[in-house]
Amino acid sequence: MATKEEGKSQEKDSALMEKYKEAKLTRRIVFIITSTILLLLAGTITGAVLFVSSALKPVDPDSQEIIEVEIPYGSGSSTIARILEENGIIKNATVFKYYLKFNNESNFQAGSYKLTQSMTLDEIIASLKTGKVMQDVLSITIPEGIHVREIADRIAEKTDYSAQEILDTINSVNFIQTVREKYPDLVTEEILQENVKYPLEGYLFPATYGFSEENPPIEEIIMPMIDKTFEVIKPYMADIKNKGFTVHEVLTLASLIEEEAPDEENRKIISSVFYNRIEKGMPLQTDPTVIYAMGEHKERLTFKDYEYEDPYNTYVIDGLPPGPIANAGVSSIDAALYPPSTDYLFFLATPEGEVLYSESFEQHEKYYDEHIANRD
């Protein structure tokens, strides 16, 4: 018969055995759970690696079928990736988008592309960047310095639309709203001022534009011109703000420079003249604003013309007109922001194309008598 002490010892041993079993079971459960989690993680990681690896490869390396893909103007990487996935050119839009970001790829061109499922991602990117597109069936060239009315005429010559239809679209509330929503930092409420003749004057960048359709919608013809203006203006945005200007003011001044100056060097000097006159509170008195105000081209302005009452006529108003009078190129925009330091207050274009600058009205008058008045 066990003594009392022996009984207590057996109970203690039994309790220790139970704790040992529990600890062993706990460790086994923890091991199983940990192993399961690690296996799941390994499986997930392996699956992810295989998925991405597959998505980076051509959809069908043996396919020779040509697939026509349309990349609209203004498309970002997300839109392009979605379009390529929808057309079966890539396997996964998300992977493609991050591939572009990882490789710092950008500057894709809009247009109609002929692509295949056998193309690698790098080949697709190269095609989208170099603009290897279907041949344009419509090409419209917008020269520097022309007005929105002339742009409408040029488009009308190449399409089935009338110039008035084009102007009506450009000036329409719906189209202007669409443009403002797309480019709120470029196209502001300033274009809607009461005296502005054409809200988007100055915002249609001069360049050559190609289209894959013979008669695309008017909005699709005009929007690339605004896209290009934003592309050109964007690098100047910080300086425009720092100088206390608005984009509208810069484009307005650039249009005056564009209309007055025959070349890049003179654009900068003429810009300095405008700055000097504004600083001294003098009217700009630039002839192209009179012509724009009157709405008709004249070889020679009369004294009566200079007195023409209109918000655009810089002979009867102070400062800049309500908006641009033409669509300026890059060099005029650059000159509008970065004029050289001069003391000139007057300039005169001679019949030979030379531009003469003066610091005083007396000198300016002398140049006028020598090169203009005495030729009459």
Automatic annotation (TrEMBL):
Enzyme class per UniProt: lyase
Subcellular location, principal: membrane
Lipid bilayer topology: Single-pass membrane protein
InterPro entries linked: MLTG-like (IPR003770)
Enzyme Commission number(s) from the entry: 4.2.2.29
Location(s), subcellular: Cell membrane
Keyword Ribonucleoprotein: no
Site entry (Important for catalytic activity), positions: E260
Entries under Pfam families matching the protein: YceG (PF02618)
Keyword entries, A-Z: Cell membrane, Cell wall biogenesis/degradation, Lyase, Membrane, Transmembrane, Transmembrane helix
Residues annotated as transmembrane: 29-52
Reactions accelerated catalytically: a peptidoglycan chain = a peptidoglycan chain with N-acetyl-1,6-anhydromuramyl-[peptide] at the reducing end + a peptidoglycan chain with N-acetylglucosamine at the non-reducing end
NCBIfam families the UniProt entry points to: endolytic transglycosylase MltG
Physiological role: Functions as a peptidoglycan terminase that cleaves nascent peptidoglycan strands endolytically to terminate their elongation.
Family (UniProt): Belongs to the transglycosylase MltG family.
Protein's name in the database: Endolytic murein transglycosylase
